[in-house]
Amino acid sequence: MSVTSFTVFSIAYHHVNLNLNNVDTSKTLYIITPTHNGYGQIPHLTRLGITLRQVRNIHWLVVEDAPTTNPNIEALLRRSNVKYTYLHAETDRKSTMQGRGVEQRNCALDYISKLNPVDGLVYFADDDNTYDLELFKVLRRTKYCGVLPVGLLGQMPYESFEIMDGKVVGFYAAFGLDRKFQIDMAGFVVHVSALTKNNPPRFKRTPLMGVLETDFLEQVVTNMSQLEPIAYDFDRILVWHTKTQNIALLSLEQYKSNYGSNRDMTRFPVLIY
Ligand code: UGA
Ligand code: MN
């Protein structure tokens, strides 16, 4: 009998002492997800649902960018086994102002305000991003406004913060360096008490792209020293701003005329995608 010898490669991981096992999960995490009937909506929400079903004490607010909700998405959310509320708010398509997910996030914020919770955290989770399960433990460290690095932003492998004596003193970003808070939507989390102020923060469309987040955060805190770096002891990224490459899809009619001439199209199964 021949013996095969293997070379075992050992990979050295840098272990950080992360005390996440006893994170208090009594605060509800309100996860706000704008979504639209665009490329990959169903796979994006399927993937996010698989992530969220593993997280304790969350309330997923999914807001459809349409004049009505979509029964196929409702069915998907029901199957996800996550506590959810499905709402709708349509984007003003006539406006030339920039900003995706604005009306939808504001609709969910209005909804949470009506619940009038005394405790809880709000996190904006776009449908196409990728989330590590430990992210949801880290979010719960927040007292008022937590911030954390986000992977794959523009040309940056990740955007992060300059921290000194436990405080945020600067940002590492590669665009919009004149923004007061250079943070992506996935990089901050806010306590619900911010929503019960007299003039609660809301998202606003602007002529410029990429300022939604700073504009919102400027309504929550006044200076960067108030931002709590909640993932400072992590040596890895917990959320990535992934994007799906949108391919022009064929309609059934286009498929028929391009490829269907010698096929029995009555046997083409019509599926929800
Ligand atoms: C970046 C930020 O990560 C977003 O949070 C921010 O809203 C956006 O820029 C912006 O400033 O407008 P990006 O990946 O380019 O994000 O945006 P998308 O992922 O395409 O859209 C953000 C969210 O809005 C998604 O959950 C998406 O489903 C939703 N959306 C997008 C709509 O509800 N309606 C739309 O027409 C487009
Ligand atoms: Mn996105």
Summarize the structure.
With 273 residues, the protein is an alpha/beta fold. Helices cover 21% and strands 20% of the residues.
Q: What letter string, H or E per element, gives the SSE order?
A: EHEHEHEEHEEEEEHEEH
CATH class: Alpha Beta
Q: Please work out how many helical segments DSSP would assign.
A: 6
Query: What is the CATH fold-level name?
Result: Spore Coat Polysaccharide Biosynthesis Protein SpsA, Chain A
The structure class reads: alpha/beta
CATH superfamily: Spore Coat Polysaccharide Biosynthesis Protein SpsA, Chain A
> What kind of assembly state do the chains in view correspond to?
single chain
Q: Which ranges are low-confidence, i.e. pLDDT below 50, for 5 or more consecutive residues?
A: 1-15
CATH architectural name? Alpha-Beta Complex
Bound molecules: uridine-5'-diphosphate-glucuronic acid, manganese (II) ion
Helix content: 10-25%
Distance between the termini: 53 Å
What profile does the largest beta sheet have?
A: 7 strands, mixed
Q: What's the rounded overall pLDDT mean?
A: 93
Biggest sheet strand line-up: 3-2-1-4-10-6-11
Radius of gyration: 22 Å
Strand share of the residues? 15-25%
Keywords: Glycoprotein, Manganese, Membrane, Metal-binding, Signal-anchor, Transferase, Transmembrane, Transmembrane helix
Binding site for Mn(2+): 128
Site (Interaction with galactose moiety of substrate glycoprotein): 159
Membrane topology: Single-pass type II membrane protein
